[in-house]
């Protein structure tokens, strides 16, 4: 299908079946899949079993787009498949799986998703830990403070930065105390992060 033909139907509700079929197909049209995902979201596509086989497709590209689609339509029936993709051999697919789960949280604590994220933030790849911490930060809920405090000692600098940014938003009054509690931390990178934020807080006072 020519680019002009497909893009021309993006805003038409009757085009949903065509858009579904086109999602994740090999194409030389830059950004087409992103447009399709956006169109399906605007059209309030209800999702459904048609996408499930794509979550197990041999192509990482198709698995990745299927992950994004499930997050957009918030298809709870597909959650077990999304959770299984957290251990996908492809790094991008794992990242898309986390981002899809974030959609189910709706920027607030979730008894469905958070127990999964608790395990990820305590011992998964650095970019996964960052994504989970950012999802906690978006909730801006004191409930997550213990996870932010733990992440102050994370070996990955972005995790530490997200943790401090989160504490600044959720519990700014006690941020200095949290940083002071890190005085005995031996990891030099952690100390540099803490020192930089202490300097920032001192300038703000």
From TrEMBL:
Protein name: PBS lyase
InterPro entries: ARM-like (IPR011989), ARM-type_fold (IPR016024), HEAT_type_2 (IPR021133)
PROSITE patterns, sorted: HEAT_REPEAT
